[in-house]
Amino acid sequence: MTDMVEDVKHSFTFEMSVPFFDGLSIDLIEVAIFIVIFAGFLLLGGLLYRQLRRLLMRLQVKESRQSRVLGGAYLIVGLIGFIVALNAFGAPRELMKRLLSYSIPIGQTRLSVTSIAAAVAIVLASTLLARYVRVVMRDKVLPPFQLPVNAEFLFLRFVQLMVIAFGVLVAVNLIGFNMNSVLVALGGLSIGIGFGLQNIASNFVSGVIMVFERPIKIDDRVTVGGTYGIVKSINMRSTVVTTPEDIDIIIPNSKFISETVTNLTHDNTRTRIKVSVGVSYESDEDLVKTVLLEVAHSHPDIIKEMNPDLPDVVPPFVRFIRFGDSSLDFELLAWIPNVMRRLEIISELHFMIRKKFREHGIVIAFPQRDVHFYPASDARPNEI
Fold first, then answer.
1. Are 12 and 98 in contact (CB under 8 A)?
2. Euclidean distance between the first and final Cα of the chain, in Å?
């Protein structure tokens, strides 16, 4: 290729060159040849792109995979064309040699372009390797162990970070960085960093405790700090809780360790619901009890019989709570198998109770007050 370029240059009767870098000059004829060669390879890549796309469509390859294959093929052709066209350059070849051998002194270390490029390549390779290792462990290695979802997620994240950290250490060692000086500098800043990162450290340790102690897990219904929702993910520093309004709340892990957490699905999904109602003093309390039990037994989602395996789960029953100021107060208590439908079942019971009370003439009480006026006996007529 170089000899062909020289023959083309000698065919011209004049030479045009401009100064470039550090005593080097670029021949404009070489620039033109570089453009022609590179453009030719790009046209060849476009032709190959179209032909290869037709072939992949005939083979019924997925569209996502087609994009990766076609993009990779075009990139390879363009890279080959760039290398071939660059080989026609005299000044750029010399410039590349100088750039590759150029180094920057930093303390006792000299950073060269080659070592920096190799370090970047190692970091990128370690990142891709970490993703591949995570996928393999998730799909092939961990399924037989049947780990909890949150424990598996954190373990895979930890493995991925360790692979990337190993690649970074190898890259730093390749550059020739003196780690002793870095450690000394970090040691001097450790106290200040410790005070500044104590919340992050606290949340990280809390996340580790949550993995082993498991006060919550993914898909649990929890209430913490006045926030109710479903646990969507447990990360190293924070936990994502999605509210019934589909709003993601990011809560630091330390909140789940230091504060009171209500977990509705910690060991099971059963729960007991309570429906309170007040009736007028003229109502028959035995009839009220009968109607409430009838409503509970007619609902399909309420547990109606005893289970020897669940001694704490009992059929629905009614409590006479108190003689209120304006009402006789009752409570209907019943067990349901699915806590996720707690609010819906309570609402359905309210509708059913209201309907049954109307049928039996039971009046739901409301606050009543009697106001009495006592005119003063010694009041003057014009003052009344």
1. no
2. 122
- If DSSP codes are grouped into helix, strand and coil, which group holds residue 221? strand
Instruction: Yes or no: say if 332 and 279 are a contact pair by the CB < 8 Å rule.
Output: no
**Residue carrying the six token digits 């005299």:** 90
To 5 degrees, how large is the angle CA 100–CA 103–CA 108? 150
- Please report, for residues 11, 22, 233, 354, 367, the alpha-carbon distance to residue 287 in angstroms, rounded to integers and kept in the order given: 115, 105, 49, 14, 22
**222: which residues sit within 8 A by CB, 6+ positions away?**
216, 228, 229, 230, 231, 241, 261, 262, 263, 264
Q: Which is nearest to 317 in space by CA: 307, 327, 303?
A: 303
Comparing 26-35, 245-254, 297-306, which segment has the lowest mean pLDDT?
26-35
Highest-scoring range by mean pLDDT, 84-93, 305-314, 369-378: 305-314
Within 8 A by CB and 6+ apart from 27, the residues are: 9, 15, 16, 17, 90, 91
Q: What is the pTM of this model?
A: 0.49
CA–CA separation, 219 and 340 (whole Å): 11
Rounded CA separation 78/38 (Å): 8
Question: What whole-number distance in Å separates Cα of residue 142 and Cα of residue 151?
Answer: 11
Rounded to whole angstroms, the maximal C-alpha distance in the chain is: 135
Structure tokens at 326: 């304006």
Task: Give the integer Cα–Cα distance in Å for 140 and 33.
Answer: 53
pLDDT digits (tens, 9 = 90+) for 275-317: 999 999 888 999 999 999 999 999 999 998 888 777 788 899 9
Burial of 171 (0-12, 13-18, 19+ CB in 10 A): buried
